[in-house]
Amino acid sequence: MFTLHFSDPACRDVRETGGKAKSLADMTANELPVAPGFAVTAEAYRHFLGSTGLGETIGRVLDEPLDPHDLAALERTGEELMRAVRATALPEDVTESIRDAYASLCSETGLEDVSVAVRSSATSEDSAGASFAGEFETWVDVTGAEDVIAHVLKCYESVFAPRVLGYAIEQDLDPRTIEMAVVIQKVVRARAAGVMFTLSPTSGDRSKIVLEASWGLGLSVVGGEVTPDRFLVEKIGLEIADRTPGDKRIEYRTGTAPTPVEESRWTELCLDDAEVIALATLGKRLERIHGSAQDIEFAVDEELPEGANIVLLQCRPETVWSGAERKPAFDASAGMMSWITGSISGGTTPPGHTHDLAHKHSA
Question: Function, please (predicted)?
Answer without folding.
Answer: Catalyzes the phosphorylation of pyruvate to phosphoenolpyruvate.
